[in-house]
């Protein structure tokens, strides 16, 4: 439907407010090529050389107009197809085939053999006897120590304070340049169960080390997208002292299970539903999103939520067996970008 | 666990929950064997070795100081022997001439009479090799000779039939350029065949070769790899190289003639706990804390052959392929694998560049 490019005049423009529209019929009659029909008819693709494309037109304005015309045509055809499909669907009624599901990266996820089957006894036994067993058997209740890297700036300090309001039974201590390997035995002797260290770089928090204390695994996360309370729009009032509920979403693989259990062991067992507060760790595509909300049930089916509290995103860098010992410790899982990030559809958590 | 099925397992892996797994690589299946029917953490497998008489019996050293006997023919545990003494888990297990040699972490090496049904309380021989032992290894050529090494416990070679003193006691290397003492942490030991030499890999990422036949007690060759402690080591068939693994899951092949790095193997995500090469074919089985058993092809080309996901943190392994039947199975495994080049000469320069990974979806059945 494109016109002959080399000698085309403004006859190619349909419905464009140009002064040439009045002259079109005359120009059509005068055309040297004779390749066009009479200008009264809408100019359609008549004898163009085959293999011609709009991009070969040298004149930018004409090329642009031809292109916009072509685009409008495409859009019309697309709408027509959609309408037709919709009509067919309505005509068939109940017998219509189900709507095709669009492909997303989460849909196309590569089959992962480590996804835990809920009936797997080996994994169940492993989890029943691992380092978190004493928490899940209700023998210990969590006591958290939150600290930062040395000489933290304001943002990090405020994040620590806000985290300590979100996590019950947590204490913030200033890191006075002490070595973690020396802090850890002291924490163990004072009955702390977890240690959180927020690492800071260039005045923003960018890393999180979560170490389960008696002998437990240490997880090292990259932290991004940190929003403090005052940066959250339409937030609610400050969280209260009630113990929140926890939601852990989408931790399906064996590694995901371990990390999920680590997060679960930060919070005490019995949530106080009066407080209506909930902390969510949502894993999607190996990124863990942390949010803290207050909810209220307006009716049986409708809930309103208010976001309180800080929000941040975590990505697991390594999971080390034993307490923090990055040099000589044994790693259960290490993120290796050149080996593990080759496929966009493969995730590990 | 059918009786016939127990013979067709190519690789045996021990886990931290006390389950012994036999993996059939051709059918890509794993079978679990437990002594008590239920996994128990007290029975965490810390050492594995072949029993007497070919590869029909496996001796499994558990964390509760017992050695269990497992028969591959029948596919079940036959008996156990309690081996008390010393503290810590087993770091080495060996058998010779109807006796059992055990070594625990606190440095007590004991030789027991191998009557597996009754627990004879007194060992035949007891040696103390020093605290902090990380590995005891038996010389396959001279079964009475064992070597021990550990953290701040230098390499010592003992002859169990000889005197109470070690046959060879290694000396630490010279002080480094700051005149500081170089710490010792021997994590794994291997005897080199057809010579008296030993290779050790250390927690300070060094690979050292000692030669007791030379007057020099210090290492003859030292090579370093990486920045993390090396935890496991195995000799490659034929050629003079070893493959080491560290706590980050990096596997590397190191040539012992020059101390050069020949190439790396990728795939593991967790600390390497066990490595074993096939005695004749260029295949390597590796297991680690990331709960996956992998079989790698070492050369022509270097890559991943097979991956199996037993879902348990794995500790030790034994590769079994000596029967003729399993040789045929290994052969068919090779035929099934995609090979790019049929020539057999190791392209040494190409090894550095070609690190192709061929992955096959392993299937689990537990």
TrEMBL record, chain A:
Protein name per its UniProtKB record: Ribosome production factor 1
The gene coding this protein: RPF1
Cellular compartment(s): Nucleus, Nucleolus
Any one Gene Ontology cellular component term annotated for this protein: nucleolus
Keyword Membrane: no
GO molecular function, one term: rRNA primary transcript binding
Biological process, per Gene Ontology: maturation of 5.8S rRNA; maturation of LSU-rRNA
Bias kind Basic and acidic residues: ranges: 1-12
Native organism: Suricata suricatta (Meerkat)
Entry annotated with the keyword rRNA processing: yes
Pfam families for the chain: Brix
Chain segments carrying region Disordered: 1-57
Role description: May be required for ribosome biogenesis.
Keyword vocabulary terms for this entry: Ribosome biogenesis, rRNA processing
Boundaries of every Brix domain copy: 142-325
InterPro entries tied to this protein: Brix, IMP4/RPF1
TrEMBL record, chain B:
Principal cellular location given in the protein's record: nucleus
Gene3D superfamilies: YVTN repeat-like/Quinoprotein amine dehydrogenase
Subcellular location: Nucleus, Nucleolus
Database matches in Pfam families: WD40
GO biological process, one term: RNA metabolic process
Cited SMART domains: WD40
Keywords: Methylation, Nucleus, Phosphoprotein, Repeat, WD repeat
Ranges for region Disordered: 300-366
Keyword Nucleus tagged: yes
Subunit structure: Isoform 1 interacts (through WDR repeats) with NVL; the interaction is independent of RNA or pre-60S ribosome particles. Isoform 2 does not interact with NVL. Interacts with MTREX; the interaction dissociation in a late stage of rRNA synthesis is required for appropriate maturation of pre-60S particles and depends on the ATPase activity of NVL.
Matching PANTHER family: NOP SEVEN ASSOCIATED PROTEIN 1 (PTHR16038), WD REPEAT-CONTAINING PROTEIN 74 (PTHR16038:SF4)
Protein name: WD repeat-containing protein 74
